[in-house]
Amino acid sequence: MSEAGSSEVEKKRPPPVKVLSGQLRAAGNRGPSSGEGCVLRLAGGRSLPVSLVWMQGTVMEVQLHADSVLLMDETGTFTVQGVGSVPRGKPCLSPGKYVMVMGVIQAVSPEPVIRAVKMADLSELAALHRRMWKLEVEDLQHVLA
């Protein structure tokens, strides 16, 4: 019965939103009564509620004892927790790798903290991914808001 209940919750969760760490840092919390996540403030006074995010960044520090990794994108750093239990996450855990992480927002301030659901190593084409990332983020947020 609990499996059916959790799958219903997952079906209701919106798809991940591509974000930059600086956007999460500046976001407003939804508050304890509305559940996890935050509200991004976008250009033109628009806002976008977010709980599941897709982020990219360079691995700065790996803390295996804490099951976390510190990543940096062009707007700052963010922490990803639960990396040891993510399928294919371990190959991503080396300083200097450029990775994608999909996860649930745990905190936005003072530094964004994400609980990982999926990770992938994008290092092979890192230069291309880095150049395109901000444009991908802006494009998706424009469509969603």
From TrEMBL:
Show the GO MF annotations. DNA binding
Predominant subcellular localization, coarse grouping: nucleus
* Keywords on record: DNA replication, DNA-binding, Nucleus
Biological process (GO) annotations held by this record are: DNA repair; DNA replication; maintenance of rDNA; negative regulation of double-strand break repair via homologous recombination; regulation of sister chromatid segregation
* Cellular compartments annotated: Nucleus
Asked if the Swiss-Prot or TrEMBL record annotates the protein with the keyword Nucleus, the reply is yes
GO CC, sorted alphabetically, is:
cytosol; nuclear speck
Q: Which Pfam families match?
A: RMI2
Cell wall biogenesis/degradation in keyword set? no
The family classification in the record reads:
Belongs to the RMI2 family.
This protein's assembly is summarised as: Component of the RMI complex, containing at least TOP3A, RMI1 and RMI2. The RMI complex interacts with BLM.
Outline what the protein does: Essential component of the RMI complex, a complex that plays an important role in the processing of homologous recombination intermediates. It is required to regulate sister chromatid segregation and to limit DNA crossover. Essential for the stability, localization, and function of BLM, TOP3A, and complexes containing BLM. In the RMI complex, it is required to target BLM to chromatin and stress-induced nuclear foci and mitotic phosphorylation of BLM.
Q: What is this protein called?
A: RecQ-mediated genome instability protein 2
Query: Source species, please?
Result: Salarias fasciatus (Jewelled blenny)
